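User: structure tokens for this one?
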Amino acid sequence: MARDQLVVLNALDVAKTQLYHFTAIVIAGMGFFTDAYDLFSISLVTKLLGRIYYTKPGAPKPGTLPPNVAAAVNGVALCGTLAGQLFFGWLGDKLGRKKVYGLTLILMVLCSLASGLSFGSSANGTIATLCFFRFWLGFGIGGDYPLSATIMSEYANKKTRGAFIAAVFAMQGFGILAGGIVALIVSAAFDHRFKTPPYHENPAASLAPQADYIWRIILMFGAVPAGLTFYWRMKMPETARYTALVAKNAKQAALDMSKVLNVEIEVEEEKLQRIAQEPANSFGLFSKEFAKRHGLHLLGTTSTWFLLDIAFYSQNLFQKDIFTAINWIPPAATMNAIHEVFRIAKAQTLIALCSTVPGYWFTVALIDHLGRFFIQMMGFFFMTVFMFALAIPYHHWTLKPNRIGFVVMYSLTFFFANFGPNATTFVVPAEIFPARLRSTCHGISAAAGKAGAIVGAFGFLYAAQSTDQSKTDAGYPTGIGVKWSLIVLGIVNFFGMLFTLLVPEANGKSLEELSGENADENDGEKQAASPRMASV
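Assistant:
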């Protein structure tokens, strides 16, 4: 039978939605806003980097980053993020959410600024310096994933917890949008000030020397939102669940939450000591007890996030086809360097505005009504359907009269990623594991996602190359082609549906009920025996 919950934790669970909830969303959400800005802004400037550092005199087309350099520039931050998710996730359970939260923010601010100040005596030297700082930028960003999700879940009430955690993640959409807007403003200002001809008219003159400042300003701007939230992040008290259940300080937990909720909360030292001595509240991550109680849950959260990110980050496969098809980005030789940045930024901004942002907020609005399981299963289902619908008649979509249909199908695929598993894979790991392991398990799940992102962004970039060597992108070997790549991605999404069956439904339950921390030993055994989700 379940034990009585600590009064301080019950007060958080039943609290009405109030100002401190929205304050926590903004503080944690601005971290995610910055994360998205920093991770996705690099795609806005890679073409410019290619023109500045890799254009060969007399070439018919402007320079582009060689495949290995492009992979490093785009992928090094993802590698850093994976490492940061594991390290800071573990550290958040050891030192506390608040202490580590400030550390990740400082790292993000410093490395954003340093990325824009990258230097070198040669092209490869500058790119190597940029990659070094972007790895550590990614390392800081990685810490934000488990800490933001854990802090929000531990502050939220159980009725609207899903919406609050999803709202933090939804700020990612605004970060992507902001990246496009900043790039539009900076490139428009430089384009107005420095008039240069298109590349095909005068290759040398098409690249203004001042264009080197553009990519630096865009990357450095990522430090601004992170820096603005540092003071408020440091003023947030440690979460009551960490203070009580991990640090075992009932008095401090009650004192902190009394100030936050503006109510008197009883200090329950004796009850906390009894709870702490229960076997259910002492097993570690690598114990048989954890494997029995939460092993399938962790397999479910890691596998679904891994599979989702393979598909989600593979969108780069057909973005260039879409942009060309609807004439958002003309051939590179018909533009000067600065105007190319403007056109790429415009395309990303429109996609964020029309597809990315709405999907996130549909999840925020409906997650506590439909449930995590339903939204995740529905998202994977429609992603599977649309991937196969793009793949099987792929030749049909490449014909000029049908290209608008291709754009619509593409947009729907990623709308259902965001109104689906892209949001729920972030929410659920912050709810279903014990407080002493919550940040660690979220970090492991997120790191699995980033491993999938690396496979999706780079594995499929090579796989999607044409089977005809004469039609591959410069520097790439032959692949299996876009059609078969899309079929493989459809299969990946189908497996996402299957592994979703391992993920428990967290809707409307307290964190302690989900993790088994307020259950006696018999309850824990029953929970372990039925890891499948609650009915939806």
